[in-house]
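Consider the tokenized backbone below.
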């Protein structure tokens, strides 16, 4: 791999700087201890540090080499430290010559010692002494450190002699790691050379195995802290899985075990091929480039590659948009491919390491290497495979060359025998991907084995994940290869597309086993009755539902076409293929209808039933929808969404089976009314009758029985006390929300006022239910995103918001007086969404349905509902849905006479007004 010229002479001119510093002391007869001189020294060095870093940033933009950038930053820091040291010796603490026992070496450790300094990295220094510290040495060290601190640098430091260094390195793996990368900067070179030799003799030779075990355990713990996934869409490029620290761990272990001074020497040790080492270098260079750009852009040590930084870094690295993928999405796909390659290199390294360690010891702990006895047992009926120390391995290096079907058979056997894989086997798969051809993809036996893996009742996700990590899954299904490492630049999806698909399959397997019955009772019950055919359909649909992401057209439609092409080769019949294609095309429909449409409007159910057409399809779509939403990321699924989906399923099933009619609906309303009466048995008869008659049918059908009982006590207490305005609060830990219920006299601007008060309090509304009672009161329930972990803290916050709502409704405060807060919404600025507004009279027989889509922000619901009131529209129901930074709100409205909005001119005014709210800067851009 070719590297750009370092151009270190252009980074810093140390001789000129040294002359400048020396010149400062001439007027003081060489005395640099004057505070005024110190301030001038600091000013010169600070100006040079700033200018030098600007030059280094410019070089990075020109050659895009991350490792070259870190070398330049390290060189600049080396020269500055040398200048400070020499100035202190010559001009600050001059006079007496330092004795031999006072001469020290300044040593770079950690990443700085590796010549890998990022713009915001700590500068780790070891002041190495021959014996004990003296007063003069302490003064010099303090001078150097205080100058560095005053320059705004973060400095990690230690002052030790050689014996102390060796003793601590033996007992502390972190110190051993730092010293492993120690590099001489300035001072007594023989002192440093002695330390290096002592470290090799006393630490490396004696503790290689313990060090390896500790570093691999440390790596596993670090991965656990970062969700054990390399495919998070806001990755930590330093400590996350597949990040820089993983490559550094390989380097550290390589130095210990193989006694190498540079990673390139691992090729000669048989650990990597030259091609694999080149890949190691490319990964390292790319990750360092990203990290350096991130530090420069953030202006600090920032290692989380957040949405708000990704577009600018993509632009700096010159990633251009193409149809279906923006520049930032192409950049992040490259990032995740690199993270995957880091995983490949780790697996190859571990295979070689196991063999190396096995030569001299029984093995390592922490799961890295199992006890080595080389026990090999043939797999009965499959001579190309063996079970070695409890792991599935290949019998020899030619098994895939002899029969490329063995590439699939390996994972089929792994699933059947429930075995983990030997690193040698997985490495050989990666090195044999060229053997995957059209014949293998169309091989009936191969596809039968693949379907057995995909629909396994054991753990299909782990097998598919191993296939994906080796690259085999993408070679077998070429359309899948296109979404490997692909991210979607939004705040809704937490993982790359391929990771999402695998997690969806894991969700289905967990639901089938009954492990998620408490969260998903409907889906769990349905899975109990699935036929083998329905299981095949579901697993294939989940694998393919997002396979067309990143294409210019709608991924659901394109994905259905892909399914029609692939399914026959996977052994599915025409009927099964048609159902899979339908599920892929409609995989978002149930979620969108449930969350953004009025489920108490018969037209909603009729339209959805027309799409579904059969009870079997409805059941499959519900299961797929649950798995899909859960696979988006932690916390995306909640009980509120579950209730909406169950209600949509129940209403649609009744219609499809002939049970949804005026009579049956009336029957269910009456049953709900009677059930509520029976649960209020302790109330007086007249009170029960009067209370139940307060609610319209929509309330009785939409609100679950438990909530109805809560509302009953709430409304009864408010009525008895004569309160015209009452509020109730409830925290919902599982849903990650807090519920505020408002009882007040109804008027057209009520929801707008409540939303504005929430916005003024910094609360983000994620859903709302609006009901009117027969006596003219409104029962509005809003749910806001939770902010505190502890319920007591969250309730205090909710009550504070409630006081704001009450003050506005009582006229004690006005919205213009309330300052809107937008806590936590900084990242949204990184996104741009074209506003869309539509007014549709075909979605309901009674209401005009206004659908709004755009970039979310605090206060948006308040502004939208306020505008609807200004337009003389009465909001019958509102459905608030957020997908990360994107909001999809639906309002069922009428004019003030209760009629739909028929006038095209009036519809146009509504669209223009709401678009202006969604994009408040549109007028400024048009004027510009």
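A designed sequence for it:
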């Amino acid at each position: 791999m070719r590297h750009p010229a370092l151009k270190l002479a252009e980074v810093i001119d140390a001789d000129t700087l040294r002359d400048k510093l020396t010149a400062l002391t001439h007027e003081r007869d060489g005395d640099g201890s004057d505070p005024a001189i110190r301030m001038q020294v600091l000013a010169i060095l600070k100006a040079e540090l700033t200018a030098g870093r600007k030059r280094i940033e410019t070089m990075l933009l020109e050659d895009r080499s991350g490792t070259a950038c870190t070398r330049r930053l390290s060189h600049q820091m080396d020269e500055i430290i040398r200048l400070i040291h020499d100035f202190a010796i010559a001009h600050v603490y001059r006079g007496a010559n330092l004795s031999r026992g006072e001469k020290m070496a300044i040593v770079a450790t950690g990443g700085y010692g590796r010549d890998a300094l990022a713009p915001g990295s700590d500068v780790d220094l070891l002041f190495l002494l021959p014996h004990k510290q003296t007063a003069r040495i302490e003064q010099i060290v303090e001078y150097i450190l205080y100058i560095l601190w005053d320059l705004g640098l973060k400095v990690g430091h230690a002052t030790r002699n050689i014996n102390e260094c060796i003793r601590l390195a033996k007992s502390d793996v972190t110190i051993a790691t730092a010293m492993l990368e120690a590099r001489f900067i300035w001072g007594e070179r023989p002192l440093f050379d002695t330390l290096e030799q002592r470290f090799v003799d006393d630490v490396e030779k004696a503790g290689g195995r313990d060090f390896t075990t500790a570093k691999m355990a440390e790596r596993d713990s670090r991965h656990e802290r970062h969700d054990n996934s390399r495919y998070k869409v806001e990755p930590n490029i330093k400590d996350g899985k597949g990040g820089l620290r993983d490559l550094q761990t390989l380097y550290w272990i390589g130095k210990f075990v193989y006694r190498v001074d540079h990673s390139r020497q691992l090729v000669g040790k048989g650990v990597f091929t030259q091609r694999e080492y080149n890949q190691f270098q490319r990964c390292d260079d790319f990750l360092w480039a990203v990290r350096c750009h991130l530090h420069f852009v953030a202006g600090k040590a920032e290692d989380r590659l957040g949405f708000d930084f990704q577009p600018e870094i993509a632009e700096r690295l010159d990633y251009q948009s193409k149809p279906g993928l923006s520049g930032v999405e192409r950049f992040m796909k490259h990032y995740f491919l690199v993270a995957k390659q880091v995983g490949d290199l780790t697996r190859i390294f571990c295979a070689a390491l196991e063999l190396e360690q096995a030569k001299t010891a029984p093995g390592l702990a922490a799961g890295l290497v199992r006890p080595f006895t080389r026990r090999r047992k043939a797999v009965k009926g499959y001579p190309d495979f063996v079970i070695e120390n409890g792991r599935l391995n290949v019998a020899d290096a030619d098994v895939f060359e002899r029969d490329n079907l063995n590439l699939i058979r390996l994972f089929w056997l792994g699933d059947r025998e429930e075995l983990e894989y030997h690193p040698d086997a997985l490495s050989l798969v990666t090195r044999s991907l060229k053997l995957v051809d059209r014949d293998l993809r169309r091989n009936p036996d191969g596809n039968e084995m693949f379907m057995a893996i995909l629909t396994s009742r054991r753990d299909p996700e782990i097998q598919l994940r191993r296939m994906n990590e080796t690259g085999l899954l993408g070679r077998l299904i070429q359309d899948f290869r296109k979404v490997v490492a692909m991210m979607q630049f939004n705040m809704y999806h937490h993982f790359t597309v391929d990771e999402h698909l695998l997690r969806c399959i894991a969700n289905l397997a967990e639901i089938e086993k009954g492990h998620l019955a408490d969260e998903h009772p409907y889906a769990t019950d349905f899975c109990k009755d699935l036929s083998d055919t329905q299981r095949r359909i579901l697993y294939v649909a989940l694998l393919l539902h997002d396979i067309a992401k990143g294409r210019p057209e709608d991924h659901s439609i394109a994905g259905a076409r892909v399914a029609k092409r692939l399914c026959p080769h996977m052994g599915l019949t025409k009927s099964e293929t048609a159902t899979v294609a339908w599920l892929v095309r409609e995989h978002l429909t149930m979620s969108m209808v449930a969350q953004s449409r009025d489920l108490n409007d018969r037209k909603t159910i009729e339209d959805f039933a027309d799409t579904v057409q059969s009870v079997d399809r409805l059941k499959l779509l519900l299961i797929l929808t649950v798995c899909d939403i859960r696979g988006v990321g932690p916390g995306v699924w909640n009980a509120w969404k579950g209730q909406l989906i169950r209600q949509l399923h129940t209403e649609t099933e009744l219609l499809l089976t002939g049970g949804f009619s005026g009579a049956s609906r009336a029957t269910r309303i009456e049953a709900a009314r009677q059930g509520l009466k029976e649960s209020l048995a302790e109330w007086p008869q007249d009170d029960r009758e009067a209370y139940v008659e307060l609610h319209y049918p929509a309330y009785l059908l939409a609100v679950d029985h438990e909530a109805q009982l809560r509302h009953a006590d709430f409304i009864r207490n408010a009525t008895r006390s004569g309160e015209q305005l009452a509020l109730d609060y409830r925290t919902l830990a599982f849903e990650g929300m807090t519920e505020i219920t408002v009882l007040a006299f109804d008027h057209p601007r009520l929801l707008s006022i409540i939303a504005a008060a929430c916005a003024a309090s910094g609360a983000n509304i994620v859903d709302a239910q609006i009901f009117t009672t027969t006596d003219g009161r409104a029962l509005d329930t809003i749910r806001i995103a939770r902010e505190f972990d502890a319920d007591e803290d969250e309730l205090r916050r909710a009550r504070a918001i409630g006081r704001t709502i009450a003050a506005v409704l009582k006229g004690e405060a006005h919205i213009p007086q309330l300052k809107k807060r937008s806590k936590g919404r900084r990242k949204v600025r990184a996104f741009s969404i074209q506003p869309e507004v539509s007014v549709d009279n075909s979605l309901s027989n009674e209401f005009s349905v206004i659908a709004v889509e755009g970039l979310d922000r605090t206060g948006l619901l308040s502004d939208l509902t306020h505008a609807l009131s200004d337009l003389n529209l009465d909001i019958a129901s509102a459905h608030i849905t957020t997908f990360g930074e994107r909001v999809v709100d639906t309002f069922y409205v009428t004019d003030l006479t209760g009629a739909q909005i028929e006038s095209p001119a009036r519809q146009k005014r509504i669209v223009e007004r709401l678009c202006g709210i969604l994009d408040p800067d549109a007028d400024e851009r048009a004027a510009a």
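The two ends are 47 Å apart (CA to CA).
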